[in-house]
Specification:
The chain has helices spanning about 15-30, 50-55, 60, 80, 90-95, 115-125, 135-150; strands spanning about 5-10, 35-45, 45, 65-70, 100-105, 110, 130. The protein is α/β, with parallel strands linked by helices. Strands 1, 2, 3, 4 and 5 form a 5-stranded mixed sheet that branches. Strands 6-7 form a two-stranded antiparallel ribbon. The chain binds flavin mononucleotide (FMN).
Length: about 150
Amino acid sequence: MSTKRVLVAYGTKHGATAGIAEQIGKTLREDGLDAVVLGGSLYAGHWSSKAKHCAERNAESLRHRPVWMFSSGPLDRSAEEDDIPPVSAVAREMQLIGAREHMTFGGSITAHTPGFLAKALLHEGKGGDFRNPERIQNWAHHISAELVAA
Ligand SMILES: Cc1cc2nc3c(=O)[nH]c(=O)nc-3n(C[C@H](O)[C@H](O)[C@H](O)COP(=O)(O)O)c2cc1C
């Protein structure tokens, strides 16, 4: 029996990105394939510094593996309506490690999200959970399909 490994790493502040990463990991495991997927949340136009440092620390080994990246952010349906390109720092990391593709998923802030700014956004009616499970799963299956084709 062959051993297939999936590494899904992520940088999160309040857990919304973890939920996306878990779903990607579960779907890839079910498909039984190898991949590295690195995701991070967006704050004030910046990708998670933890995800960024992870990419930089492991650049050498990631360069030799198939890598996909994602961002979690928009608190509306915009990520479903258009392909939102990676912010410039993510585009640089992708180039550094030769990552295959990037996807932006809707993010989430709810009444349980800590922090003054999250509360302020909710107060302005900008909150909600915009992570779309179907879109996340489809992307993970797309990764599997690319790996099978390779
Ligand atoms: C203070 C604050 C700033 C944010 N800035 C952005 C942003 O610049 N771009 C974006 O797409 N989403 C932004 N968001 C939305 C977050 O990226 C979204 O809630 C994300 O899912 C959070 O993931 P996490 O819980 O894993 O940290 C912001 C949210 C907060 C609370």
